[in-house]
Amino acid sequence: MGKMGKKSVPCRLAALAALAAGPLWAAPSRAQAPEAVVAPPVADSSASAAPLATAGTGLSPATPAGTAATPAAPAPAAPAIAPSRSLFSSEPFSAFASLSNFTLKVYGDTGFAVRDNANQPWQTNTSNADVYSAGAATTFFAPRLDLFGSAYVDRLNFLTEIMFEGSRNSIDIDLERLQISYLFGDFLRATAGRSHLAWGYYNDTYHHGNIFELTTSRPYSVNFEDSFGILMTHLVGVGLDGTFKLGSTLARYDVEVGNPRPADITSVALEYAEGPSPTLNLRLRWMPIDGLILGINGMRDVIPTLASPTPATVPARPQTEELVCGAHVVYTEHHALVDLEGFLMRHNPVDASPTNLSGVFAELGYTLGAFTPYLRPEYIRFPHGTDPIFQFVATDPEGAIVGESSIYAGVTNFIDVRVGVKWMAMPQLALKLEGDRVTRDSQYQDIATAKAAFGF
After folding, report:
1. Which residues contact 247 (CB under 8 A, 6 or more apart)?
2. Which bin fits 264, alpha (ψ -120 to 50), beta or left (φ > 0)?
3. Counts of helices then strands in the chain (DSSP H, E)
4. For the stretch 313-339, what's the b/e string if a residue is b when 16 or more beta carbons lie within 10 angstroms of its beta carbon?
5. Which among 71, 73, 70, 64 is positioned nearest to 100, based on CA atoms?
6. Over the stretch 146-201, which tens digit does the pLDDT of each residue have?
7. Which of 109, 172, 371, 452 has its CA at a distance of 20 to 30 angstroms from the CA of residue 211?
8. Which backbone phi and psi does 133 adopt, to 5 degrees?
9. Which helix (H) or strand (E) holds 10?
10. CATH says 9-74+88-455 is which class?
């Protein structure tokens, strides 16, 4: 959700354009994963924008792992267009009005949370950034409205996500995803724009519609940039991906190149790179049986120098190379969800000692009819107070931008354990009840959340 571009004129224009064009797009009959609507009618393809929607994986972008299964609606047939009518004519909307493959979907959530912070008196970013003001114990929330638009023309796909998002009791506008892709075949698809990094399983399987997630919020490891996430979640650049046979099994690759993290790590580099070295990301997967995914990742990034607002007293944060490797094991058959992901990260700041941090989380769920009880423990290990990127305090250059210290400042062991149940009351509505304990070394907070997540 990076802060870069919020409240900007381009984002507002994009949002207004999406709303203005809404009546031209066919309304969906049920909640559906955003990626399911962009697949062109190509048989047995990986044309879906969902990175895992390939033959033999046992996964469907219309029913993400952990949700109640609902038969996916068939892809609409390609509309007949008269040869004399140009699709991209000088009339901005007339050519699109007759197409049935334009869709606009709306996602959001609302709920109530209770926090006991007697053992840890710091503000926690829970499932909604800025849910609690200092000292607050209870709160109702309705912080997000997600507009998801998509279309396809033959093998060309387009999608966009525009988020109206609460921050300190005001609304910010963010262009979360804007990507276009072309399918050459199962073996190759090319994508360009702003997308979710092909990292692990969670990051580009679940996007901004919480109805599809099991829990009330993302793991801290893959949380969004402006919510103290550790791994890069958004990428502005280009990527290639594809699926191919490996004997009697399937394999998949993703290769991405894009803008590096900006100097402000809570933002996303939308239109220009602040550093000289692009981000490089590679993901390889093997799918030996339906529903089972074994994957590895490797990424290199260079985070630019961040100048200090008080150079006489606080030094600038140095340019830092970031190297990350990761692995994931996922199983999604027979009503079960098992998602185990881990990473190792090394920071190499210029003229300073390197630091290492690591993390792992497991999401476990089992669907019984419309109900899915779940458990998600997460652990992140920090070098105590010495990581130059994520353990900043309010007086550091990054802390001056954010306006507060990092939730990881001065912490060695960060633990988050969630247990709850998700009830798909109907395909358009998920009700969730969750208990959460967030622990920083010896301090902890207990949080209970009731949420209604919806999509139409």
Report:
1. none
2. beta
3. 4, 16
4. eeeebebbebebebebebbbeeeebbb
5. 73
6. 999 999 898 999 999 999 987 777 788 888 999 999 999 999 999 999 999 999 99
7. 172
8. -85, 165
9. helix 9-21
10. mainly beta
Separation between Cα atoms, residue 239 and residue 318, nearest integer Å: 29
Alpha helices (H) in 373-446, listed in sequence order: 397-402
What is the rounded CA–CA span in Å between residue 320 and residue 277?
11
Residue 312 to residue 240: CA distance in whole angstroms: 46
Query: Mind listing the pLDDT tens digit for each residue in 435-450?
Result: 999 999 988 989 999 9
* Unique residue bearing structure tokens 């966009």: 160
Domain range annotation of the chain? 9-74+88-455
Structure tokens at 179: 């990507």
Q: Quick check: 141 and 131 in contact, CB under 8 A?
A: yes
| Model confidence pLDDT, tens digit, residues 316-356 | 999 999 999 999 999 999 999 999 999 999 999 998 999 99
Whether pLDDT at 311 is above 90: no
- Residue labelled with tokens 């140009």: 86
Cα–Cα dist 270/193, whole Å: 9
